[in-house]
Design brief:
Elements (H helix, E strand, L loop, with lengths): L2 H7 L6 H15 L14 H14 L5
């Protein structure tokens, strides 16, 4: 097995903080209520929940 095959076989683990941010970011790109608002707290309910999960993950607390 070459080095490239070994890297392809390993599973990438996404840290919880980055996963939470990515989920929030992807949501804001699709959501009309969140698109273009100046603060995450001004978005829709789902957007605010995703942002809250990110904030908890950022300080190391489970959501």
């Amino acid at each position: 097995m070459s080095g490239g095959e070994a890297r392809a076989a390993t599973k990438r683990v996404e840290p919880p903080m980055l996963r939470a941010y990515r989920l929030w970011f992807e949501h804001t790109k699709k959501c009309v209520g969140c698109k273009g608002v100046p603060k995450a707290q001004d978005g829709c309910e789902t957007g605010r929940e995703l942002w809250g999960a990110y904030r908890l993950a950022r300080i190391g607390r489970p959501s």
